[in-house]
Amino acid sequence: MATTTTSSSLLALPSFRSNCNQRPSFRVRAQISGDKATSVEPVNGSVPVSKLPNPNGSEVNGKVKFQREDEIELLWDDGYGSKSVKDYFAAAREILKKPDGGPPRWFSPVDCGQPIKDAPTLFFLPGMDGTGMGLVPHQIALGKAFHVWCLHIPVHDRTPFQGLLKIVEDVLRQEHATRPNKPIYLVGDSFGGCMALAVAARNPSIDLVLILVNPATSFERSPLQPLLPILEMVPEELHFTIPYALSFIMGDPIKMASIGIDNQLPAGIKLNKLREKLTNSMLPLLSELGGIIPRETLLWKLKLLRSGAAYTNSRIHAVEAEVLLLVSGKDRMLPSQEESKRLHGLLKNCTVRCFKENGHTLLLEDSLSLLTVIKGTCKYRRSRRYDFASDFLPPSKGELDFALQELLRFLRNAVSSVFLSTMEDGRIVKGLAGVPDEGPVLLVGYHMLMGLELGPMSEAFIKEKNILFRGMAHPILYAETDSTKEFGYMDWIKVFGAYPVTATNLFKLLSSKSHVLLYPGGAREALHNRGEQYKLIWPDQQEFVRMAARFGATIVPFGTVGEDDIAELVLDYNDLMKIPFLSNYISEVTRDTKEFKLRDESSGEVANQQLYLPGVLPKIPGRFYYLFGKPIHTKGRPELVKDKEAAKLVYLEAKEEVEKCIAYLLKKREEDPYRSVVDRLSYSLTHLPENDVPSFEP
């Protein structure tokens, strides 16, 4: 690894050094490849362009540093968990080896690498520490999706708040002038959140996306306010105790030490690893905070924080930017949860996600990758408007592992899904071999109660075929009205490709040759009434056939059974609407969906999209079964686009095939000796873990 000015390496940004009025005292090193590095000495406060690595991966001194990627591959390595707070302290130590009085400057961590084509730019504005290293655990992932630049405010720098705003504004305006149609991201951590909001208020014409992490706009209501006057009276020789004590207030050492520890390890091993990290790494490192924030710097930063919060709050009404607000439930430094409610009401376009088990230093604690949160809240875009097709980034391996182990673990183990598919010659085989590998492919089928079939089905396509299908979702999942919402299941289905079911989105996805999942029965089928299990509740119109034919997509009908083996529906929509307070609640919840035109050409019960949570009684789990029918080809059949009668025949063919698949599975599951979870557990105890539990022969 190259020797660099920080543990991550630094890349100079020549044009961004226009704010510097003096020659920096540190050297900038750009890693070229392998164990070799090229040192670049700043000249008059900037680095010559010719000395920097070529961003397109061209040769530099005979070596290629980066190779730009057009798109991110499925199950890519996002690096989350490979870096922790230990790496943050190591990076801070390196950058503070040669302390100077400023001015503030920008750097790009080499860990970020080269982003995908047309990636937007992300600027990180640090908190009280000012090092700019707060993204260390997230650098690898963010570097795939953004051009990442971090602001470093030297320890002895005394630039006032408005001076810092000008430094950030100069960079934003230059970036906006260079790429006027691209959004610019500002990630503001604590004090940096104040800077981000203030800059947005002063630059309403620039397309900004603000990601605020426990912003310090609530500093005047901080529970530490009574203690602040005491800090000024602490003698210099005892100052080292102050940052050490504050570290336990600012963040959760246990959550910091938990980054990189596999949650699936046995409890004893996990606790041992956590203890080792706490005693050998975490707690000794906290004593270094005194060097990062010396006494005079701490007092200056507190004054800066107070003036910055007041300045920002006086102008917050002018913010037009899109805002993602991330707050911690155990923030002991600021009343972040209360502040999230205030900001959500003041800001015009604000989405909130709460992390109830985290402290103030959210970005350095064990929670989720920042890029995962950005994707799950649909905030990643490369143009003026978010596009569900072109702006989608596929899930990483870490995201898949988290989803399978933390979200779907019980369901996966309980239902032990069986997958079958139909070949072109009509043979039914185990697995998904009958589903075409090449898109566009339109999967249409039966929607089980509450969509329970989705998780195991998505896992099977990813693991067996390396394909992520894009599934439709009700638009209510995209409504953002809650200021206390946690990052949960509804966000994770967006990470894994869910899109609002509209004709425009279906058009875009099929045109990009994707595998697309569509349920003609929609929410009405997934939330069916008692006695309607395995009944197709499809509209009369051939909604999807003509769209599929327009792109020559292959239609694959499929059936699923198993909902009656895992739960019994005891209270359906009709039952719940007879209970006064529940009927009012259901009407209130679905009120926000009226702005969406769902099935505006449909009539009857399928057009009824009221959403509710049915009353169910769990059973001793049975098993889920999936059968993908014989593919229906629309390529070379242009008459389907305009001839409604011809399209209707294909529509009825697909519907009949789904019904046949369901009937086949209901009959064949009776032959499965391991349909009951009890029998499957018995089998697992006598066989190796890698052996899948068998089922009936197709």
UniProtKB/TrEMBL annotation:
The keyword Transferase applies. It comes from the Eukaryota. The keyword Acyltransferase applies. Coiled coil: none annotated. SUPFAM superfamilies: alpha/beta-Hydrolases. Residues 37-61 are annotated as: Disordered. Keywords: Acyltransferase, Transferase. Signal peptide: none annotated. Residues 169-257 form the Serine aminopeptidase S33 domain. Belongs to the diacylglycerol acyltransferase family. This is Serine aminopeptidase S33 domain-containing protein.
